[in-house]
């Protein structure tokens, strides 16, 4: 069925539909059950719970299962109703949920990692469970036999994972700020490339197989869009969060990116617009505007008998400049800078008459967010975090799309 796209006023904001409370510790993952008024949660309190909405409008746990170790990651495959729970001890446990979501049967345990599991994905066609962990590796195991097929090690903790089911490419983000693209085979893998651009650890990844775009969020508060399919390898930088970006989701239909940060910030970015790539920062021993030496340039300081200056960078042109030549600040949304950043005085003059209207909307989730997931078909989002609260949101007023699947704003 064709999707309807409704334009909404900019002032629209996410509508909080429900708060789910009951966990005794950090809720590490929460997933909406497709086509059901239900949520599956996994927590550091060692429980996995399935919450169903009752006639009263409240969510009550229909399944409450205690694990042997704190739950750190989760994947759910709705068509087969299989659930995979990663734990702090490195094991992944598989369960099968009954049709009425009132019973959960244990299937098997996978000895996937030697340390905390950070991300899991399940591929039904190959019957693989793929995971990353704090033992610095990605592993893929056969769900039929429960045996290990392959492992690949990185130089630091593997923190997040995305997988292309058709091509068997895996994207792994790590604590060093690097993203590794791997091609997984039955018992081996090959490193295709590494992506470097973040100044902090990678906290979240999202892969869009249609446009072949990879989005990465990091502890440096920024998001980068990597054009994997495009030959130019274009990257776009998005800066609008004031804390580490914990979760991202790209809505391909409306070309919007939803991101959440640890301080509760929820951002919706308009990606259906021609954005500009932020420049690489240039290095110089002296200001590229007034030619005054920087403080490490001893020779020029001696020759000109001047005191060295601090080096800064203009976010628009990338030039190395001194403080006197970059006295202005400006937002520049077309380049992804949603708040005031340093620009050199000449760039400030060149953009002061340009349209600098924000290309994102910012909303307050009013709780710590460590994980988010969306049911794009219904325009629903669930957030959870260290405050032990799970929140269910109607995002249709913000993302401006309502797919023709029977969902209506409630």
TrEMBL record:
GO terms for cellular component: early endosome. WD repeats lie at residues 20-51, 195-228, 238-279. Keywords: Endosome, Metal-binding, Phosphoprotein, Repeat, WD repeat, Zinc, Zinc-finger. Residues 281-352 form the FYVE-type domain. SMART domains: FYVE, WD40. GO terms for biological process: positive regulation of toll-like receptor 3 signaling pathway; positive regulation of toll-like receptor 4 signaling pathway. Its main location: other. InterPro entries: WD40/YVTN_repeat-like_dom_sf, WD40_PAC1, WD40_repeat_CS, WD40_repeat_dom_sf, WD40_rpt, WDFY1/WDFY2, WDFY1_FYVE, Znf_FYVE. The keyword Translocase does not apply. GO terms for molecular function: zinc ion binding. Positively regulates TLR3- and TLR4-mediated signaling pathways by bridging the interaction between TLR3 or TLR4 and TICAM1. Promotes TLR3/4 ligand-induced activation of transcription factors IRF3 and NF-kappa-B, as well as the production of IFN-beta and inflammatory cytokines. PANTHER family: LD41958P, WD REPEAT AND FYVE DOMAIN-CONTAINING PROTEIN 1. This is WD repeat and FYVE domain-containing protein 1. It comes from Circaetus pectoralis (black-chested snake-eagle). The gene is Wdfy1.
